[in-house]
């Protein structure tokens, strides 16, 4: 059997095209022509021996083979980039101060720390898990180098908008979905302490729909919120990212609740031209998070 060696550049074009939803956008992002990316995709399908994409309406969707290839391509690129960074960046030293929303503390941070530490053992990360206002204050006043935060009224001069994610009603994983309140009763809400972007979005949506509500539980931390929702004290609102096992995202229609808007996610840098260590951590952060954002 002839061995097949996949070209990292070809795999990168494939992954970028899937994640951006367009191979024309991938070509632009990678500074290649659309025809060059098309030729790469054709070559990858020839190596795979099966189609990776199929027509879906006006766009394209992954075949089963394409889904398998996407998973392996991401893993191969991660190792490739980690190896390249390790051999070229062994002399990087110092620290990077990273700020994250609680949503990403348990799911994203361990993977990012692991990749960064393997590639740059002499560098250290000082991570801070906090709310939006504190994170943006930190990056705007030189106390944090890199911040991953939800988009709101506050921002920073050096911001990269990553995605817009759907906000969803969140309920206990063990509770029945249909009709979370009885007729005439106010909907019990489990929310973070004010001010909170997501709390405000939930209340505004309920007010517009004419649905009575009450604050059943407030918490200063997301962990406290999830504990209350898991216990069945009420429903909350968040994006589907980083949900713990005790809760689940609900379908608004089935739950008898109004639809919710999307929430922007952005990466903030303290400097327009950040040091090499900060730039490398940003690459790892985006690369680790991208598969979740493309779902």
UniProtKB/TrEMBL annotation:
Presence of keyword Oxidoreductase: no
GO MF terms held by the record: DNA binding; DNA-binding transcription factor activity
Pfam families assigned to the protein according to its UniProt record, in alphabetical order: HTH_1, LysR_substrate
Residue ranges occupied by any HTH lysR-type domain in the UniProt entry: 6-63
PROSITE patterns linked to this entry: HTH_LYSR
SUPFAM superfamilies according to UniProt: Periplasmic binding protein-like II, Winged helix' DNA-binding domain
KW Flavoprotein (keyword) present: no
Protein name, UniProt field: HTH lysR-type domain-containing protein
Annotated keywords: DNA-binding, Transcription, Transcription regulation
Similarity section: Belongs to the LysR transcriptional regulatory family.
